[in-house]
């Protein structure tokens, strides 16, 4: 693992500009680990206050027919007191895969426990965070963490997750690796995989550094690095990875950090996503949540022009709301570009929800969301409103089962039907 230890101090060299030896970087890391200890305590206190409420809510069940759309309705983004606008995502071209096969919000796991369907050689726990949806996986011990239910990754897939660091500058880098493992029962072997794509996220108090390293069919390639302004406000960062055969794109919120045409091996059978925390954080932790794996390359043009319908899971809304999340920009732009190219194309926009909440509330919500998409296409992209009709089906036309998180995520969708 020597190459991974060498990449991390390089980030600190660029950040602080005064490190000339690895030993000095270690001293600085130790110094940072004792700073802001009270911050972690404050976050922990907030987490503890919400635990009892979360457990009580879980015992009541998530299908509360008195609700207004379900507690998990179209989650998957980061909320904040100053939310990003659609304009800030104007260069965001990420479009999720056609079918969601994994959606993980840790709601099936009891607070305080390590997730049942994950594997690790370290430790972690399921927690809640005040003001954030779902449960989160908290990790601060050096080790490897792997969701065992992700065991096959095709040529075209998208993978998203939210990541929070509560004390940037006091914890070492977190590595995210797409790997081809020969022994999935021992995830720590990820660093010996013949083929892997590894990305680091190394938060600092006022930004972050990131590196990527590639190993294809036994041949390693030198790491490269970049920097990002994320983590500066200690809010969740939405990480998105998009593989198209050999190509890999990586985004942090609205910023595209990497776009590598030859990052992945066309011959490897990638079968795992693994996180490795380098070092530990006595006064800091990472929190992961809202994991989404989608498969299949979106083909808007073919779906609309030849099959007369395009279904997207990439237009997301705030919980129980018709407010569109700004990370939906890429999917909205897909249909907008097509309508600009084919000026006689007219579509009906149809909203769908999962089965959480009452039938009537879901029907009303789906109609409002369809109208919100229409208004966004008109306002943000200049599409004539006369070319768009809207409708909502609520939970009445599911495309998947409503008894799993992934199934519910597939049912929460927007359809564009050619008219």
Number of domains: 2
User: Total helix count?
Assistant: 7
The total of beta strands comes to 19
CATH class label of the largest domain: Mainly Beta
The CATH architecture category of the largest domain equals: Sandwich
Arithmetic mean of pLDDT: 81
**Percentage of residues in helical conformation:** 10-25%
State the order of secondary-structure elements, H for helix, E for strand.
HHHEEEEEEEEEEEEEEEHEHEHEHE
In what range is the share of β-strand residues? 25-35%
**What is the name of the CATH superfamily of the largest domain?**
Exo-inulinase, domain 1
Compute the CA-based radius of gyration: 22 Å
| Spatial shape | globular
Structural class: alpha+beta
- Distance separating the two termini: 57 Å
* CATH fold-level topology of the largest domain: Jelly Rolls
- Unreliable residue stretches: 1-81
Major sheet description: 8 strands, antiparallel
